[in-house]
Write a structure and sequence with these properties.
alpha/beta, Rossmann fold, Helicase, Ruva Protein, domain 3, Zinc Finger, Delta Prime, domain 3, five-stranded parallel beta sheet, two-stranded parallel sheet, 52% helix
Length: 463
């Protein structure tokens, strides 16, 4: 069992990290997440009334998931038990459940079971917990940085209310820092700390929505800075702040939501023809350590899927960027990434390549017709079966085109590809419309001739 919620420690224990000391103890102290904890919201009312059902807190690090669990532990009349999914196994779950069953039967007391990092539980561990959540032995509260709809047992998610916590705003982070500076017991209110505005701005900016990051940097700055000449004032200026937190934290897990959400934003920005947004998401991925080859593969797909024949050069640009990057590598390879990104973002767009999937659906769902005889290979059996007979070689004609049947007989007049009129496809649209009109005219004449021949044959037969 974790002692995460042990309240026996003294509040002025300076051996504990500042971020731990400054954890809010009540809802009134909690900063941020007004969308789920504002006055009158469902979650706030449930906590205040001690009427919680099973729930899952989902969001980035430092947004208050564990803090909310601690507040619930401090306010509920139920017995509060906590496990950490990294350390706990099936044995720990069963032990917690047995104790919960005893309290329920002999003390008529509910048990709230909090599991931190619940996404790290394997299927067996989650399955061991599920029936006891279903029958009400425990009220389950989970905390996770990963999307629970993908990482947590579906049955467990369906029996829980999911609350998404968001990265804290700049205003929220400034409030957290000021709270730490003012609190004389848990923070630095008993010291003379002069945190300059540029220093605070730097701490807040580099923390990227993570309260823990702000407090850790503030603690390092205060604890390692000698008082000024007056012997009392600790000045935390911009150089001190920059030394305390030098690089902006970016939430990015290559296996998690941030990875998929960011590449999604990048592709949608390309598709929306916004080069500035596309560059931003590209830079954010590279800064966070994303594999550039993954990004290049996605741009190759995009060039064919979303630009297509509106600009056939796009696919070549993407291919050249991928090949060039393989020669150059980082950091100079970022030029290839940037140029390809800008080209794709500013190129005209067409997704007519999806016409292939319409054809695929047709093949999958419809009865397929025979290959027309004149299109068949004549090299093997043209003499016996007439394969290839009647084929018109387009290059033998002045415009290198001749109306001819290429689809099976019962598919005449079926169209899969419809040019959009964007970019180069405008030229294709004009040309294809003209060709199809000639085909239709030739087809009408062909059918009329066939009907005339059939009528003549009937007349001759009657005679």
């Amino acid at each position: 069992m974790s002692d995460l919620f042990d309240t026996t420690a003294t509040s002025d224990d300076r051996m504990r990290p500042l971020a731990d000391r400054m954890r809010p103890q009540t809802l009134d102290e909690f900063v941020g997440q007004a969308h789920i904890l504002g006055e009158g919201t469902l979650l706030r009312r449930a906590i205040q009334a001690d009427r919680l059902a099973s729930l899952i807190f989902y969001g980035p690090p430092g947004t208050g998931k564990t803090t909310l669990a601690r507040i619930i532990a401090n306010t509920t009349a139920a017995h509060f038990t906590s496990l950490n999914a990294v350390l706990a196994g099936v044995k720990d779950i069963r032990e917690a459940i047995q104790k919960a069953q005893y309290r329920q039967k002999h003390q008529q007391q509910r048990t709230i079971l909090f599991i931190d990092e619940v996404h790290r539980f394997n299927k067996a561990q989650q399955d061991a917990l599920l029936p006891h959540v279903e029958n009400g032995t425990v009220v389950f509260i989970g905390a996770t940085t990963e999307n629970p709809y993908f990482e947590v047992n579906n049955a467990l998610v369906s029996r829980s209310r999911v609350f998404e916590l968001k990265a804290l705003s700049t205003h929220d982070l400034r409030t957290v820092a000021h709270q730490a500076l003012r609190d004389p017991v848990r923070g630095y209110g008993d010291l003379h700390v002069d945190l300059t505005e540029p220093a605070l701005n730097h701490l807040v900016h580099t923390a990227n929505g993570d309260a823990r990051s702000v407090l850790n940097a503030l603690e390092l700055a205060v604890e390692t800075t000698e008082p000024s000449d007056d012997g009392e004032t600790i000045v935390v200026d911009l150089p001190v702040a920059e030394a305390s937190i030098q690089q902006r934290a970016v939430l990015y897990d290559k296996e998690g939501d941030a990875h998929f959400d960011t590449i999604s934003a990048f592709i949608k920005s390309l598709r929306g023809s916004d080069p500035d947004a596309a560059l931003y998401w590209l830079a954010r991925m590279i800064y966070a350590g994303e594999d550039p080859r993954f990004i290049l593969r996605r741009m190759l797909i995009f060039a064919a899927e979303d630009v297509g024949l509106a600009d056939p050069q796009a696919l070549q640009v993407a291919q050249s960027a991928a090949q060039g990057f393989s020669y150059v590598g980082m950091p100079e390879g970022q030029f290839m990434l940037a140029e390809c990104c800008l080209y794709l973002a500013t190129a005209p767009k067409s997704n007519t390549a999806f016409a292939y999937f319409d054809a695929l659906d047709f093949v999958r769902n419809e009865q397929t017709g025979d290959v027309p005889t004149h299109l068949k290979d004549p090299n093997r059996d043209s003499e016996d079966l007439g394969h290839g007979e009647g084929y018109n070689y387009p290059h033998a004609y002045r415009s290198h085109y001749v109306p001819q049947q290429y689809l099976p007989e019962d598919m005449q007049g079926t169209y899969f590809y419809e040019p959009t009129g964007q970019g180069y496809e405008a030229t294709l649209q004009e040309r294809l419309e003209a060709l199809r009109a000639r085909d239709a005219d030739a087809d009408v004449k062909k059918r009329a001739q066939r009907y005339a021949n059939e009528a003549r044959a009937e007349d001759e037969s009657s005679a």
